[in-house]
Design goal:
Elements lengths: L1 H11 L10 E6 L5 E8 L5 E7 L5 H29 L7 H12 L8 E3 L1 H11 L10 E5 L14 H6 L5 E3 L11 E4 L6 E7 L7 E4 L4 E6 L2 H5 L2 E7 L4 E7 L1 H14 L5 H20 L3 H7 L6 H10 L1 H4 L4 H8 L2
Parallel strand pairs: 5-8, 8-10
Antiparallel strand pairs: 1-2, 2-3, 4-5, 6-7, 7-8, 9-10, 11-12
């Protein structure tokens, strides 16, 4: 019930706070002009203050300040529920991830068809399925799109500028082949926190392809089209708040993870993580959504089927005995 209430609230938000909700203060400049400002903490825990409206006493400014205080109060009322769900084993995104995705949400990237994939999408999906699983740690955010994003109004800002509006200073990561444009963006400084922009590849190569509507380029990934063919809006939770993001269907995500585990050049910890995440979702789907796994398997592209058999075998130890329904669904075809 608590999760459902938060999910409903997240679905109604058109704009979310970047960072904590904060508070509305009255300030005055050197000339004596009194105005309203919002004080809050950003994704790195630094206190920020931004101009809201003014002058104090103006009917429109006062009304806007009241509306902001109402929004802030609503979020503050939700924070104890988010904290409780976190203690109960639900996944909460870290602050940097939340403000980054909140910024993309506010620009309409997810409502236009952009999709969160990778481990953060996995966290959203297992929350939605009510699954308690081992926590994951990642400094990667993967954003993908299947086709041109359907913005109501094409944004003036580039993808990099959208990321920077999170308050985090992102910079483009140069490619090893210098003539190629960047497809990855990292936080400036000694950190590995970064965002990758991804699109489907027409083969098993990794081309760099333009994304004109975001004034950016993306890396093409094999079989990504399969993952992106069907999607849903779901709630991302953090200590600061919650917002809707677009994610793949869990059964597609699981099958794609199995395929990807076999595509990695140097199979190791990342491949093991792929298989583990796939098996968690498969176990949940077999119990909750009969037929979903079989349906996802039928839609796997023919060239990718050669990877499925060894990928499925890699999940045997996790599924065959503990989750026989999932194993049966996975090996039925």
């Amino acid at each position: 019930m608590l999760y459902s209430d938060l999910e409903s609230y997240a679905g109604q938000q058109r704009e979310v706070f970047i960072g904590t909700a904060g508070t509305v203060l009255e300030r005055a400049n050197a000339a004596g002009f009194r105005f309203y400002a919002r004080q809050y903490y950003d994704g790195e825990g630094k206190q920020r203050e931004s101009y809201l409206c003014g002058p104090v006493g103006d009917a429109q400014a006062d009304a806007r300040a009241r509306d902001m205080r109402t929004r802030i109060a609503e979020i503050k009322d939700l924070v104890p529920s988010l904290r409780l769900l976190g203690r109960e084993g639900f996944n909460l995104a870290d602050s940097r991830t939340y403000v980054t995705l909140a910024s993309l949400h506010n620009y309409g990237v997810f409502s236009a068809g952009g999709m969160l994939i990778g481990s953060h999408a996995y966290g959203v999906l297992i929350n939605q399925l009510g699954v308690r699983s081992a926590t994951y740690t990642t400094e990667d955010i993967d954003i993908a799109r299947r086709e041109a994003l359907a913005f109501e109004t094409l944004p003036e800002q580039s993808f990099l500028e959208m990321l920077r509006d999170s308050g985090i200073e992102f910079v483009a990561v140069p490619q090893l082949e210098r003539k190629l444009p960047a497809t990855s963006f990292k936080q400036r400084g000694k950190t590995r926190f970064h965002v990758d922009l991804l699109v489907p590849s027409s083969n098993e190569e990794l081309p760099v392809l333009p994304v004109p509507e975001l004034k950016a380029h993306a890396t093409g990934l094999p079989y990504l089209k399969y993952l992106l063919e069907e999607s849903q809006m779901a709630m991302l939770m953090a200590r600061e708040g919650c917002c809707n993001v677009r994610v793949p269907l869990p059964e597609r995500f699981a099958v794609h993870k199995l395929i990807v585990s076999q595509l990695r050049a140097n199979r190791g910890a990342k491949s093991e993580k792929d298989v583990f995440q796939a098996c968690v979702l498969l176990a949940a789907m077999a119990d909750k959504h009969s037929g979903a796994i079989e349906s996802a398997l039928k839609r796997v592209p023919k060239p990718a089927r050669k990877y499925l058999k060894p990928a499925i075998e890699s999940g045997r130890s996790l599924l065959e005995t503990a989750y026989p329904r999932a194993w049966d669904a996975l090996t039925a075809t």
